[in-house]
Amino acid sequence: MADEQAVLNLANTWLRLDKDPKTRKEIQDMLDGNKTAELRDRLCERVAFGTAGLRAAMGAGFSRLNNVTITQASQGLCAYLEETLGLSKLQSMGVVVGYDARHNSTTFAHLTAAVFVSKGVPVYLFNRIVSTPTVPFTVVHVGAAAGVMVTASHNPKQDNGYKVYWSTGCQIISPHDKGIANQIDLNQEMWPVDDVLDSQTLRIKPNDLIRDRTDEMIDTYFNELRNRYVRHRESNAESTVKFVYTAMHGVGYPFAVRAFEAFGLRPFIPVPEQIQPDPEFPTVTYPNPEEGRGALSLAIRTAEENGSTVILANDPDADRLAVAEKQSNGQWKIFTGNEIASLLGWWMFECYKQNFPQSDNSKLAIVASTVSSKFLKALAEKEGMRFDETLTGFKWMSNKTIELESEGYTVLFSFEEAIGFCIGNLVRDKDGVSAAGAFAEMTVQLARQQITLSGKLEQLYQRYGYFVTQNRYFLCYSQPTIKKMFDNIRSNGQYLQTVGRFPIRFIRDLTTGFDNEQPNNTAILPTSSSSQMITFTFENGGVITLRTSGTEPKIKYYSELKGSDEHQTKEELAAMVDAVIQELFRPEEYGLIPPSD
Predict the structure, then answer these.
(1) Three-state helix/strand/coil letters over 362-406
(2) Nearest Cα to 297, choosing from 253, 259, 244?
(3) DSSP state of 352
């Protein structure tokens, strides 16, 4: 722990670097009030740069996101790109910078652009807020060296983030994250940007290196979506299915409108209170449609008022998609990410078969994260397709897609259970906009056959088996507590043989690299000692994974069991999850906080 003098030195360094009156005042007030503990919290730990880029609360100090840390991150990224590519090539390729509607996002984007322009690097800077998928799409289409999206996705309003894409359009993976982090450490002093950035407004001055292709790139995205993935445009327009859509106070509304137009769908009914961007997210506790009924309550009310039977919801940066359907008994079913993926994955396969009836299924592929449902694995095996799984996160899935394409495969669909979906390869990341359009097309085509979404899901289960899942999380704000919990589970390598009444068959620990299903007990998937992830495969075929989130203070669990009878399978899985919570999570002992809803 830094002593008091070291903390004071860091505070003085901060005041020298920071030109923002608001954040300077935060640190100065702490100094004046002798608030050493608060200063230590703000200054002694730097916000960590990883494969997810940066994500943290906004505020003063090196542990928060602010003008100083965003500028330093941009300097580190620029220096790493120059080191990797050479300045001449970087200047010929340029970078893409986009931003969402959160507090400070526009400023952070312009600060990022200023850093690159100061080094003679062209910047494709969007002239307004955009969906996150727009950035990786643009990176590929303009041939940029990298892309930055300023967003914290569905995090609470006090947070923001800095998401980095490589020239492939995929999020960065190792070793790029470590290389960028190292260059951030080497580039702490502020580079001179007065010639390119207005010091009062913190906006880029007119400059030939700023290239605005906003409208062109958005138009190109929707033209490609229409030409490559729309299958039933004429009959879509005839449908009487009513959709309600919410943007969750984010950027999604104009993109969803364009998606519906591309698919020839009738306009949806927007949730009026949530359609305009608002960084305060005033109508939701958490702006995350994955949270379920609490986040979708206004959408359900709007649907009831307008006689709608289907709800589509994007998260604030429009890279995720949630879906709900009104059932015959009047209740609303909110589909899990795995259920949405089961439907959408089947639909992508169905559309491909219709378009290419003589195709060789053995050259088709589906990709999923390892904690996601294995339903599409069963479908792929039965239909003669390839199924690959990766670590959690689209950075892994998108790179796997590129690898598979290089081997001659067509990747129809990739997904993660956290309502993240990618249709084909339109974008090298999850994309809630194209997914919403494709899902709506599937819905209206099923409705033409008098089949509901729930009804189709039941048909798929009858053909490929019932896959019951139960995924939740506990909040934990103490890293030592998290470490203690996982250390106790590992028990110095003497892993459990049973949990409750359920015998364990295999254990895979991607923190340590242990996997007793593999030769020499060595895991095949990449391992990381900086994160926690253990998977238990039980004798009954059930799989339960415990892992920490990389962007939120959550310990998550993912569980799935396949069976022939839905009711019995649900009961069996519920008993397994309860045993895991009581014996492994031990929420009372560790002070873990369950979700509020």
Answers:
(1) HHEEEEEECCCCCHHHHHHHHHCCEEEEECCCHHHHHHHHHHHHH
(2) 244
(3) H
Q: Which residues participate in catalysis according to the annotation?
A: 153
The average confidence (pLDDT) of the chain is 96
182: three-class secondary structure by DSSP? helix
Nearest-angstrom CA–CA distance, 383 and 399 = 24
Q: Environment class of residue 152 by beta-carbon count within 10 Å: exposed (0-12), middle (13-18) or buried (19+)?
A: buried
- pLDDT tens digits for range 18-70: 999 999 999 999 999 999 999 999 999 999 998 789 999 999 999 999 999 99
Q: Please name the residue that has the structure tokens 């009310």.
A: 301
Average the pLDDT over 130-155 and give the result. 97
CA 109 to chain centroid, in Å, comes to 20
Q: CB 564: neighbour CB atoms within 10 A? A: 10
Yes or no: say if 365 and 404 are a contact pair by the CB < 8 Å rule. yes
| Phi then psi dihedrals of residue 347, to 5 deg | -65, -40
Q: How far apart are CA 291 and CA 154, in angstroms?
A: 10
Q: How far apart are CA 421 and CA 290, in angstroms?
A: 13
Distance between CA atoms of residues 472 and 485, nearest Å? 17
CA-nearest of 489, 487, 497, 479 to 583 is 489
The helix-helix angle for 67-85 and 105-118 (nearest 10°) equals: 40
Q: From CA 214, how far away is CA 209, in angstroms rounded?
A: 15
What string of DSSP letters covers 88-143? HHHHHH-EEEEE-SSTTHHHHHHHHHHHHHHTT--EEE-SS---TTHHHHHHHHHT
Exposed/middle/buried for 525, CB within 10 Å: 0-12, 13-18, 19+?
middle
The DSSP symbol for 272 reads: G
Nearest CA to 149 out of 252, 290, 55, 22 is that of 55
Nearest by Cα to 99 from 75, 129, 79, 70 = 129
Could you tell me which residues come within 8 angstroms of residue 433 by beta carbon, excluding any fewer than 6 positions away?
A: 131, 133, 252, 255, 256, 258, 259, 314, 318
Helix or strand (DSSP H, E) at 475: strand 466-475
CA distance 184 to 207: 26
The answer to whether residue 1 scores a pLDDT higher than 70 is no
CB 310 within 8 A of CB 243: yes
Question: CB-based contacts of 148: which residues, under 8 Å, 6+ apart?
Answer: 53, 74, 77, 95, 96, 97, 98, 109, 112, 135, 162, 163, 164, 165
Q: Using CA atoms of 383, 388, 393, 399 in order, give the dihedral in degrees to the nearest 10.
A: -110
How close are the terminal C-alpha atoms of the chain, in Å?
37
